[in-house]
Amino acid sequence: MPRGLLRGVIAAAVLVVAGCGGGGGDSMGATGQATSTAATPRTPSSAVAPSTSASVEATPATPSSACPQHYALVTPPSVTREGLRPLTRELCYDTFAVLHSGVSRTPLYAAEHLTRANLALASMLERIDSFHAETALPAEERAELNDYARSGYDRGHMAPNADMPTPTAQAQSFSLANMVPQVHANNAGIWSGMEQVARRLATGDGEVYVVSGPAFLGTEIKQVGRVLVPTHLWKVIYRPYTQQAGAYVIRNDDSAAYQVVSITALAQSVGIDVLPSLPAVVRETALELPQPTSGATRVTQWP
Questions:
Q1: What is the pTM of this model?
Q2: Per-residue model confidence as pLDDT tens digits over 6-21
Q3: 3-298 adopts what CATH topology?
Q4: Which residues contact 101 (CB under 8 A, 6 or more apart)?
C-alpha cells in the first residue's frame, strides 16, 4: 500500500477506535460489524519464526486461521466492530496466536490453549527477558522498543511468559506484537492475579482456553510513541470440562476494581466476539470467576 494511503487509513481508523466507546468515557459501547488477515514474524535467534498473514485495509469479521489449534472449537474470535478491522494480521506462534492491529500497534487479542502438561513444563523454565520488535510486521505497523522507552508504562504481555512451555515459546511471548502499554501496578497486581486464576483452572481441569486483549473505549485515547494505550483490559477463560466461560474486565489503571461479565456482554462492549462457536447458553451466562487478588474489588459498573 502506498505510504500516503497507509497514513490515511491509520488516521481514519484511529478516529474510529477512539470513538468506539459509545456513552461516557468509561462506559462500554455498543457493537458494530467487523474484519482481519495472517503474517510470519521473525523472532530472536532462540525462537522459531511464527506464521503471519498479509494485512489489508479491512479484513473479514471471522477470518480463516492458519493456527486453529489455539482457539476453542478451532474458531478464531470474530471482530464485530468495523473500526477495529483495518490493518489486522494474525500471527501464529508455537503456543499462542495474536490478532495484531497496525492501527494501535498492539494485539487486539492473544489466544492460548492452556494445558496441564504445558504448564508443568513452563513452571520449570527460568524467565529470560527478550523484548523485541516483531520484524515480520511492516515497520509502519509495528511497535518498536523506543515507543515504550521512558513512557512510564510496562510492556504488558497478553499471552503471559509464565504460560510458555519451551524456551522458544518464551522468547516468542516477548514480541511487542504480544504487548500493550500497561500501568505497572495493574500489570504486576490484578492482571497477574487473573493470569494465575487461568493457570489454576487449567491445572485443575486439564485444559482451558484463554483469550486476552485490550479495549480502547471513550474519545480520549492516550499514545506512547506511536502505540495506542488501552483504557481497559479483558481476559476470557473457557472451561471445556464444565462448558462454562466468563470474562474479567479491568481498567488500565492502578485500581484493583474488576468486573466479571458474559462473553455476549464483552462482545457488546469491546467489539470482539471471543467465542463465536459456543452455544448461546454458554456465551450468555458468565462463569463465576474468583477474586483475582486479595485486595481486588468486584464492581457491577464503573463509578
A1: 0.86
A2: 444 444 445 445 544 4
A3: Extracellular Endonuclease; Chain A (3.40.570)
A4: 84, 86, 87, 88, 107, 108
